[in-house]
Design brief:
This protein is mainly alpha-helical. Helices cover about 75% and strands about 0% of the residues.
Length: about 350
């Protein structure tokens, strides 16, 4: 059971998140940059940025990138990996707003079926792509629409509930997605699969930033500047071996996310209306805050489907972004961490990263 959980939920979702990052996410950033530059000057070079972003964010391209990422993470043979592109493209388009979850489910099954016949015949170059693509296409026709609808419905429910109860849901979403970010699963893939945007997306960003910035700041005495960079701009997942040894070290950043989540939803009303995958990235490459910024100027299709529209951010919006994503997580986690060190729950070296 552990083998399959790792293969499908950990490796598969991580590969899917990488595919989303290399297509939809980076494409959205490029397109938004080009759109803002075009407002300053109608320049063919700036229009190229918009065109490049459009190419990268096309649903067919995004689906293919996700499926190839999944196949690569599952260590699929080359012919299976390349054939997965067609499966992912079809599943993502057919799945609609919940396309990422459809890609995850259908691509995994098609990849495993392709693996069963790979290198088993003398005409492998025909048989393997044939089995992978036909099985994926059949599953897409039969199930992608319904998987997508189910995922989209869950996402809409969370978004609606967060609007209705921003304080409670701000805490829940922030803590759950933040914890998922530090666990060896993909919080980015979860947010993408359910289309988490709006206030719910803002709470997710807050929770992820609390984990990354929190661990980076509270472990500064052990890991110095290298730890700030590797955890604050990389991933808080690096602390998992230490969490297993002493789970109490997880308390400060989790408490920080419990506080910053409702601050984001109730006080600053911070919405993440960029690509939904950004909601689960935190400060990894500053993707979470960048997603909030791109959502201000150019909301994603998923966010528009949830009622979002472009805005002109005010000083209050910028202040909220900086406080929720960087300043408050650092201060709160440091303070909680200091308290836990004083009472002996966290000892010197508990947060030291292995080299």
């Amino acid at each position: 059971m552990n083998k399959y959980v790792k293969r499908y939920l950990i490796d598969g979702m991580s590969g899917m998140a990488q595919g989303l990052f290399a297509s939809l996410l980076i494409g959205t950033i490029i397109k938004t940059l080009g759109q803002q530059l075009l407002l300053l000057n109608e320049n063919i070079f700036f229009k190229f940025f918009v065109d490049a972003g459009n190419f990268a964010t096309d649903a067919h391209v995004v689906g293919a990138a996700m499926a190839v990422g999944i196949a690569y993470a599952m260590k699929a043979p080359m012919l299976v990996l390349l054939s997965a592109a067609a499966v992912g493209s079809a599943a993502n388009v057919t799945g609609g707003a919940g396309g990422p979850l459809a890609v995850l489910v259908i691509a995994i099954i098609a990849i495993e079926l392709g693996n069963l016949v790979s290198k088993k015949t003398k005409v492998d170059i025909l048989v393997t792509p044939l089995v992978t693509i036909l099985s994926g296409a059949l599953l897409t026709i039969l199930t992608a629409k319904y998987i997508g609808l189910a995922a989209s419905s869950v996402g809409k429910l969370v978004v609606w509930a967060t609007k209705l109860h921003p304080f409670l849901m701000g805490m829940l979403v922030s803590v759950i997605i933040g914890v998922a970010l530090t666990l060896p699963i993909s919080s980015a893939a979860i947010c993408a699969a359910f289309g988490l945007t709006g206030l719910a997306g803002g709470a997710a960003v807050a929770g992820c930033c609390a984990q990354m910035v929190g661990f980076a700041v509270m472990s500064f005495r052990e890991n110095r500047w290298g730890g700030i960079l590797s955890q604050g701009l990389g991933t808080s997942m690096l602390q998992m071996p230490n969490i297993v040894k002493n789970p109490r070290i997880w308390i400060p950043p989790t408490l920080a996310s419990l506080i910053t989540g409702p601050i984001a939803t109730c006080i600053f009303k911070m919405e993440m209306n960029g690509a939904a995958v950004s909601s689960g990235m935190g400060t990894c490459g500053m993707v979470g805050p960048i997603g909030v910024i791109t959502g201000w100027f150019s909301p994603s299709e998923t966010a528009i489907g949830h009622g979002a529209a472009a805005i002109s951010p005010t000083f209050f919006d910028w202040l909220g972004l900086v406080l929720v994503c960087i300043v408050l997580p650092g201060i709160l986690s440091w303070a909680f961490g200091l308290l836990l060190r004083k009472i002996g729950w966290i000892k010197e070296g508990d947060l030291l990263l292995e080299e």
